[in-house]
Amino acid sequence: MQNTPFSEFTSVPTKLTGGFINHVWRLTSASSPKTVILKYASSEMAGCPGEAFSVERMEFEAKGLALLGSLPEALLTTDDELRKVNKLGHALVRVQDVHVPRLLYYDRNVPFMVLEDIGNLKTYEDWCTANDSSKADSKDIEFVCGAVGKWIAHLHGFGHDNFDALLPHFVNKPARKLLDDMFYGLFCTRIVENTQLPDKQELADIAKAFVSEKNALVMARNHANRQSNPCTLLFGDLWSGAVLFDKQKRIVNLLDLEFADTGLVYSDVAHFVAHLIPVHFMSNPTYDPNTDPWPSHVVTFLREYAHTLKKEHPNAFAALVANGSALRLMTVFFGIEVARDVLTGNWCRCGTGDKAKEALMPIECACADMLLQFSRAYVKNTHASIFNVLFSD
Predict the structure, then answer these.
(1) What percent of the chain stands above pLDDT 70?
(2) Which long-range contacts (CB under 8 A, 24 or more apart) does 348-351 make?
(3) Percent of the chain's residues with pLDDT above 90
């Protein structure tokens, strides 16, 4: 921090949990109670040592932050690309209830950044699954999901309308490689090697075909008519750990833009739903997604997204959602994402999933059986998809 505007933040740093991708600390000023957040990107994932992830990811986070918020004068005058991206973002509709922490300083050579500190807030997942008085109530959950649905709709509408200008800045090859290799590849490996499912090879083949199809659609975007282009700007990693609600201020905070990219809307919409439903599963011991109604807050997210996109950005809705393939891609991806998480030991109510996190497979518990039954139907597109909600009004 020496030779930066934050050199006085010399008190003992506090390492923050939840930094799976980067190393994150809270720093306190030596002369006041003021705090900031420091993020540092190493060549490996912080939560998965040995797993390479290009430090270029921080470049995309910086550009995403520059697009979505204001920049300090020092960055506006010294970083030409951030200045250009920030100017593009002036046309983006702001949602009053949603906030993205401000970028305060960025050094791409180290690389590290300093961010506004939004305080000690729980992630959406921790908030919903808390066992004390801080646990979320249903009205607040509805509020958060509705606000995120509206915000992401405006982002996608803006991204579609300004795609040609945004594309030179948001082709996130490091994130795409990590997702294809580590996430989709991990699903295929674990479903085949670590389960006794009779259709495991079929599921792996569907996942491989999905990756090929989505890559072809993304690569063909430059050849499509702009009005029918199925790609837009993506948040990139919209999940339960990226959403933090400040109940006192009634503000939904969205964090972490390392995966900001251009691509298909399933990456944001279906990815978020693939965390909303398992979080609901974890916080409601009797909930069975195979038989119980959809959680109302998930429906709220999808309806607010579709309503806002259709009303405020009708051309984007037609190209991004009502294009003939988006419903199927969301459905299949949702199934892959939920199953992948289950196969890596997540979303287990009984604790057996911890064995999977230690690579002791297979998982044998009612939680895994329930969620794999549910997710397999989505992968194979044989379930009445929740994403039909997008077309219900």
Answers:
(1) 96
(2) 349/281, 349/282, 349/285
(3) 81
pLDDT, mean over the chain: 93
Contact call for residues 336 and 209 (beta carbons, < 8 A) = no
Give the pLDDT confidence of 35-51 residue by residue, as tens digits.
999 999 999 998 888 88
Read off the DSSP letter of residue 228: G
User: DSSP assignment, residue 123?
Assistant: B
| Encoded tokens for 156 | 């996608």
pLDDT band at 84 (very low <50, low <70, confident <90, very high): very high
Q: Is 121 helix (H, G, I), strand (E, B) or coil?
A: coil
Q: What is the pLDDT of residue 50?
A: 85
Distance CA 181, CA 234 (A): 20
- d(CA 197, CA 182) in angstroms, rounded, equals 22
The greatest distance separating any two alpha carbons of the chain, rounded to the nearest whole angstrom, comes to 64
| Beta carbons of 347 and 353 less than 8 angstroms apart | yes
Positive or negative: CA dihedral 296, 297, 302, 304: positive
What the block records as the tokens of 213 is 């199809």
Backbone phi, then psi, for 94, in 5-degree steps?
-95, 135
- Tens-digit pLDDT profile for residues 91-103: 999 999 999 999 9
Q: Above 90 in pLDDT, residue 186?
A: no
Helices (H), the chain: 57-68, 73-78, 80-88, 124-129, 138-161, 163-166, 173-178, 185-193, 200-219, 266-283, 296-312, 314-320, 326-343, 354-357, 366-379
CB neighbour list of residue 138: distance below 8 Å, 6 or more residues apart? 296, 297
Distance (Å, rounded) from C-alpha 186 to C-alpha 51? 13
